[in-house]
Write a structure and sequence with these properties.
By secondary structure, the protein is mostly helical. The chain has one domain. The protein is about 60% helix and about 10% strand. The protein has a two-stranded antiparallel sheet with strand order 1-2. Helix 4 crosses helix 5. The radius of gyration is 18 Å and the shape is globular. It starts with 5 loop residues before the first strand and ends with a helix.
Length: about 140
């Protein structure tokens, strides 16, 4: 049987990274929302303070605050990549939580060619997001 360029599998002994990252993202959204960290009277982005340019995560704190306030469109306007990444974590985290009792975790296997395409796509998306942040004045 021929295998495609990408395959998800439930691997025994694999670290449940989806559940870990999902918990970190949920804690970030809750912490930012409850502590109102998006309304600090000073900027917390050292990169932007030094260079004047937004970093790749500029607007993520405000995006997570908007997610906490159940404003997904406002969140997307702040940092589309951070929101898309957070939303993508949800099914991965749920799958890992479902597999956790059996000692398995969700893994993704890519062929070398698919891995190159995935890396190129990731760089392209990150650059496009950064250009959006710069144009939007984040």
């Amino acid at each position: 049987m021929t295998r495609g360029p990408a395959r998800f599998s439930a691997t025994t002994g694999a670290a449940p990274l989806g559940a870990v990252f999902g918990a970190i993202a949920a804690a970030a959204v809750l912490g930012i929302g409850l502590l109102r960290l998006d309304q600090l009277p000073f900027p917390i982005c050292v990169f932007k303070a030094v260079t004047g340019w937004p970093c790749l995560t500029c607007g993520a704190t405000r995006a997570f605050a908007r997610l906490y306030a159940l404003d997904p469109l406002g969140a997307l306007a702040m940092n589309p990549l951070a929101v898309a990444g957070g939303v993508a974590l949800v099914p991965w985290a749920l799958a890992d939580l479902a597999l956790l009792p059996s000692g398995r975790a969700l893994t993704l296997e890519l062929t070398p060619s698919a891995g190159r395409w995935a890396r190129a796509l990731a760089v392209t998306v990150a650059v496009a997001n950064w250009l959006y942040l710069a144009a939007a004045g984040r």
